[in-house]
Design goal:
Number of strands: 10
Strand content: 15-25%
Helix content: 25-40%
Radius of gyration: 20 Å
Shape: globular
Distance between the termini: 73 Å
Largest sheet: 8 strands, mixed
Length: 261
């Protein structure tokens, strides 16, 4: 059997304690991309062992916000074409075939948007009405890069870059264990609240009242959580709690700051 020709693409993933999800992400690309880079920011479980056994090159890095680890990963990739995957995400066979077809010759565009759809823990395939979002995930690093933002991780296209959408999907499976999700909420909301405080952004009592129900409705109605039954109810509560924690911590910090002053 002839060896599968690999595409001149570096796939990269940022991880921390993702032992239950990292293997599926790597397995969705390892056979057809030139390399898989895993930048680990302090896992204490078996994430790095699993990633190395799956064929990824694992590199340690310190947590300095969301954007910086991805900028670091870009600098470690050997190819100019990059494919970013988050833990819990996997490239569908249809998308893999579409990307392979792009590289029969040099891709016509510099940056490609990919539709990322939710796949809940109890599902084998995504619901036909699953919520999704479009992000720049496949790109030539000479025409776009992740910004080193503390709170945001998005590819910023450079002037003159050309952009297109791919038809295939990335499936995103949220973290199944609630205790891990709550730990992530705490870490993220701490950073967000501190950033808001440094920027002088104050939270009003009215927002303290409205944040949780508004976020719940956004997840359950506008992000179509209602199609999942009680799973949708649970995820909407989790989403609302993550949003409320940021506001509550900022409200506490701003008043503690006034008290200390």
């Amino acid at each position: 059997m002839s060896k599968i020709k690999k595409l001149p693409i570096s796939a990269f993933i940022i991880t921390k304690n993702e032992q239950d999800r990292i293997l599926k992400s790597i397995a969705s690309v390892i056979a057809w991309v030139d390399e898989v880079i895993v930048v680990d920011i302090g896992s204490t479980d078996a994430t790095t062992t699993i990633a190395e056994a799956a064929g990824a090159n694992v590199l340690p890095n310190k947590w300095t916000g969301y954007g910086n680890p991805k900028s670091f990963a870009e600098s470690q990739c050997q190819n100019r074409w990059l494919l970013n995957i988050n833990p819990g995400e996997s490239i569908t066979p249809k998308l893999a075939s579409e990307i392979k077809a792009l590289f029969f010759s040099e891709p016509e565009k510099n940056i490609y948007k990919i539709h990322i759809i939710d796949l809940l823990a109890h599902e084998k395939t995504a619901h036909k009405w699953a919520y999704g979002c479009w992000q720049f995930r496949l790109y030539n690093k000479h025409y776009g890069n992740f910004s080193p933002s503390f709170l945001h991780d998005v590819v910023t296209p450079r002037h003159g870059s050309s952009i297109a959408k791919l038809k295939g999907k990335i499936e995103h499976r949220p973290q199944q264990e609630l205790h891990f999700a709550i730990e992530q909420m705490n870490d993220c909301s701490d950073m967000q609240a501190n950033d808001m405080l440094e920027r002088g952004h104050n939270v009003s009592p009215a927002r303290m009242l409205s944040e949780f129900p508004t976020a719940f409705l956004k997840s359950y109605i506008f992000k179509r959580g209602f199609i999942y039954g009680w799973w949708g109810v649970m995820n909407a509560h989790r989403y609302a709690l993550s949003k409320y924690l940021k506001i509550a911590k900022q409200y506490q910090r701003q008043h503690m700051s006034h008290f200390r002053n």
